[in-house]
Amino acid sequence: MSFFSGILLGIVVGVLLIVALARAASVRAKCRSDLAMTIAAFARMTAQDSRKVIPKEFYPSWVVFTQQQKLHWLNHQLQKIWPYVDAAASELIRSNVEPILEQFRPAILSSLTFSKLTLGTVSPNFTGIDVLEDEADTGGITLELEMQWDGNPNIVLDIKTKLGVSLPVQVKDIAFTGLFRLMFKPLVDEFPCFGAVCYSLRKKKNLDFKLRIIGGDISSIPGVSVAIEETIRDAIEGSIMWPVRQIVPIIAGDYSDLEAKPVGTLELKLVQAKELTNKDIIGKSDPYAVLFIRPLKERMKTSKTINNQLNPIWNEHFDFIVEDVSTQHLTIRVFDDEGVQASELIGCAQFALKDLEPGKVKDVWLKLVKDLDIQRDNKNRGQVHLELLYYPFGTDKNLYTNPFDPDYTLTSVEKALQTAPYGSEDSDSGKPSSPQKRDVIVRGVLSVTVIGAEELPSVDFMGKADPYVVLVMKKSETKVKTRVVHDTLNPVWNQTFDFLVEDALHDLLILEVWDHDTFGKDKLGRFLMTLTRVILEGEIQDSFPLEATKSGRIFVHLKWAAQPIFRDT
């Protein structure tokens, strides 16, 4: 009996053991599955997800290493190696920067070289670092480093003027803040896993320095200080300012595709300026303008000089290559021509190209300032009038709409106004066209109806005026005038004049309102307009404010009939 009892007990115990082991295996498998799912979920978590799930007090010490601590560590290491960087980099900077300075050397100087160059004892500080993970180009790694440097370098420039005068000029008290962009690309399967390093100054937030002639006063030589300062600033902007980038090959290869490429053209009309500051003691300034997107000599455009005039009319056309419409800007500097002496800056202005809509004309007045980086005063230095038109390469211009009527597509006249982009294909041959441009002459008849004016300034003793309008075509110097309307500040003329215009793209219409008087005449105001709008729209009726007067508007109706003429240049 005991034997059978033992067998039965053994069977029961064995079954229980088997059940227990099976259940343990099932529980262990479930735990492993849950652990795998948890690990997979953690693998998919981003840094932002981790911050939401885990409180800061539970971060491990290696995670709580903040960006400021990282920057502190980086700056500490840079400070330790700075004496060696100074010794190693000074000669390298000299050999690389001197050719750049020579490239941007102004006409007043015959040579510009370094006689001394050390970086001093104060190292730069990195104040910010960012990895651009949302860049469209994923073929590399892009970092942005914000750097601040209040340095004490010993930089002496050996300068020789056209007059044969040698000047040792010291650059001191440098204060610089900027955002540098580093691009490691392309990524390759060979150590160090990227082919080249590209660096560029993405944004120049501040650049200030002082110039001093060793043993003398730099202000005693007119124009030299301004010329040197402009050279240094232009050299920085033209050589490393984004979209320009310097490429350092790490692995041998062709990296020309990393260079900045043209993406479009900017067509510009320099119309006029008004209320310019007078820089001459006797007479008035002789203004001319210098315009550029990049301050390279071959890309800078210079207008003609208008003598003895504070309200010059240039009416000149220029075009510029654009490499990054989102970050580049147009710069204009207006100078007073001093003859054999260095020209004196009247004022400067900038316009961001990102504010332009492709294929649409933008009419702007830019206020001139003394310095684009540091607003040192609020003095009125005048304004400049521009017409701007941006066209990107590789875009069908037929898709563009009229600048002044969104429902109106480009006409054949508008297409004639445009030039083929560099490197485009000829529609007949299928081969790339040469950079030769076609000079477009738009000839036609401009009909101008002077309707009336309102709120003219009073110049007579009785508080009235006897106004009439003089119409002038600037290029052809054709001049006509309306009849005189007596004793009114709100005259109505309703007179029409027809002008045969030989080159409408380069002509201007000037409307001058005068007060007729027996013993003379007084100017009540004027309005100057290009023919761009009437060429594109065909017919317009509008009112325009009068310039050089405290009040007044003039109402006109214009109609244009054109016949474009092409002439290869």
UniProtKB/TrEMBL annotation:
Coiled-coil features, chain-numbered ranges: none
Residues of the SMP-LTD domain: 67-251
Keyword field: Calcium, Lipid transport, Lipid-binding, Membrane, Metal-binding, Repeat, Signal, Transmembrane, Transmembrane helix, Transport
Family statement: Belongs to the synaptotagmin family.
Cell compartment(s), UniProt: Membrane
Transmembrane domains' residue ranges: none
PANTHER family reported for this sequence: EXTENDED SYNAPTOTAGMIN-RELATED (PTHR10774), SYNAPTOTAGMIN-4 (PTHR10774:SF178)
SMART domains: C2
Tree of life domain: Eukaryota
Protein name: Synaptotagmin-4-like
GO biological process: lipid transport
Entry's Gene Ontology cellular component terms: endoplasmic reticulum; membrane
Signal peptide: 1-24
Function: May be involved in membrane trafficking.
GO molecular function: lipid binding; metal ion binding
Membrane topology: Single-pass membrane protein
Domain C2 residues, every copy: 245-366, 427-544
CDD domains, per database record: C2, SMP_SYT
Cited Pfam families: C2, SMP_LBD
